[in-house]
Amino acid sequence: MPERYADILVVDLLGGIGDLLMLLPAVHGLARRNPGARLRLLTHDPGADLVRTDPAVAEVRTPLHGRAGAEREAVVAALAATRPDLAVSTTRYDGIPDLLEAGAGRAVTNLWRDPPPQQPVGDRYLEVLRAEGLLGAADRSARPRVYLDGAARRAGERAVARLVGEPLAPPVVLVTDAGMAVKRWPRGHWRGLARALTRGGHPVLTVGPVDPAAPLGVPLPRADLPTLAGQFAAVGRRGGVVVGPDTGPVRLAAAAGAATVALFGPTDARRYGMGGTDLQGLPGCAYRRPTAITEQPCWWEARCPLDAAGPACMADLDVAAVLAAVTAR
Prior knowledge:
The chain has helices at residues 17-33, 70-81, 96-103, 121-131, 150-164, 187-199, 225-237, 248-255, 269-272, 312-315, 319-328, and strands at 7-11, 38-42, 59-61, 86-89, 106-108, 172-175, 204-207, 218-219, 241-245, 259-264, 277-280. It starts with 6 loop residues before the first strand and ends with a helix. It is of the alpha/beta class. A 6-stranded parallel β-sheet has the order 8-7-6-9-10-11, sandwiched between helices. Helices cover 35% and strands 14% of the residues. It contains 11 helices and 11 strands. GO terms for molecular function: ADP-heptose-lipopolysaccharide heptosyltransferase activity.
């Protein structure tokens, strides 16, 4: 009989919305395997808003400030508030694993351990927890899903209904930005895709920076993350598709139930894919390191060794291929 835990602390302080979303199947699996447990989640804003109403999560904690050492302080505070029976963490910096191993009844502090180059990150988390006896075989097929309360669903539905009405073709949302320059699809490619979709009768909506001189579509209203998830869910209910690079909003769209076409360049789609249609630019790039992406020469400053004009892997994803993937979805 697997051991049950009454108080579980899950720590994800990697900083990105996508990082938290990839961990959600593990969070939900731990809650299912420990019915009645008090599961606390320590993560960053604004991603924390996505789990504040999640029935699986009893408490959400965030660092109190943005200065150096805030994450370590937050872990110390969470352990002082209640000693967890079990601590699980994706976070490996600033001595946080040592704090958890000393302050919890049991700690699993490296969900990244020994990843095969082609194994999806979220699957790796689930496999490590299964090897630790914390999840079962059935949990390995789980995919990220965000819990949307009624308010977020209604707000999302109102926004999309107002913008697209009753279209002849499903709407398409273009997520035109990414948190890092190295992941951005060229602006000219976005313009070509938007024109082709409009000619095909698809209402084109956008998330990201708006260029008043050359708008790509109608911007979705700015909203908090739960409401944005509600907007994506409304697009999905209309048979629509969300297109964008390897970035948090596209992962959020997938977790909200919308079909996605994700554009991968410096990151490997086999490791970071979203479960929809994942397109890989320059799949044979010799500089790509699937399990050590931060060590790639292009990563931090978007200086591509193959093309001084910008990431060659992103430019390699041509408009025709992306349009075909969108219409197929």
